[in-house]
Amino acid sequence: DAGVIQSPRHEVTEMGQEVTLRCKPISGHDYLFWYRQTMMRGLELLIYFNNNVPIDDSGMPEDRFSAKMPNASFSTLKIQPSEPRDSAVYFCASSPLGPAGELFFGEGSRLTVL
Amino acid sequence: AQSVTQPDIHITVSEGASLELRCNYSYGATPYLFWYVQSPGQGLQLLLKYFSGDTLVQGIKGFEAEFKRSQSSFNLRKPSVHWSDAAEYFCAVGVGGQGGKLIFGQGTELSVKP
Q1: Using CA atoms, how far apart are residues A34 and A57, in angstroms rounded to an integer?
Q2: Is the peptide bond before A8 cis (omega within 30 degrees of 0)?
Q3: Phi and psi for B107 in degrees, rounded to 5?
Q4: Which B residues, 36 through 75, put their C-beta within 8 Å of a C-beta on chain A?
Q5: C-alpha dihedral sign at A107, A43, B100, B72
Q6: Is B89 part of the contact surface with chain A (CB cutoff 8 Å)?
Q7: With the C-alpha atoms ordered B72, B17, A107, A95, is the resulting torsion angle positive or negative?
Q8: How far apart are CA B99 and CA B50, in angstroms?
């Protein structure tokens, strides 16, 4: 079975550039989550969707970050403009149950902003 | 406030030795409980989970965990560690029911000595 698929796995960009991260959740999972992982802050929930609708975006750091889920099989996380402090690993996860249940994680997108 | 504490940032054990990773939580009711493992450059993989019932739960890769309500703990154990178990381990607590949220601990990094 295919798991959660994220792309790109690695992204190096320069400050001020737009970054788009992509995620394909597991088919049949109604919930999709975007997390950010850094050494300093650990795992942070940025936003999650239920049936393609954003439910909680309180973790999105600022207006430079936006996320969309145009259909049940695709989501994007966009950073525009990017800054060095955005450097982190961004994980997408999906779940059949809900935000407090078992999550299935992708392998992550490592972003480096120079 | 709801929180998850993993007191040990880094643990080193010898191959073949037993392992116990600690996890304590603060929450007014019985939460959903999870342990995830993250190998370098990979996403998080679920080791085991507790929702209700038997407080000793078995997981993959020979791991088990015991929920102790009186101690608000959910410690992870393995009787004999293998070199391939070297990774970062995250305890997570689901609060507020299925529609609530998942709180991750800061993680414990496990090193295995030959």
Answers
A1: 10
A2: yes
A3: 95, 150
A4: 36, 41-46, 49
A5: positive
A6: no
A7: negative
A8: 17
Residue B59: its H or E element: none
Contact A106 B96 (CB under 8 A): no
- Count Cβ–Cβ pairs < 8 Å, chain A vs chain B: 58
Token output for A50: 């239920």
Token pair for residue A1? 């079975």
Each of the 114 residues of chain A gets a pLDDT tens digit; together they read 689 999 999 999 999 999 999 999 999 999 999 999 999 989 999 999 999 999 999 999 889 999 999 999 999 999 999 999 999 999 999 999 888 888 999 999 999 999
For residues A7 and B14, what is the distance between their CA atoms, to the nearest angstrom? 37
| 3-state SS class at B69 | helix
Verify whether the Cβ–Cβ distance B44 to A99 is below 8 Å. Answer: no
Which residues of chain A does B50 touch, with a Cβ-Cβ cutoff of 8 Å?
A: none
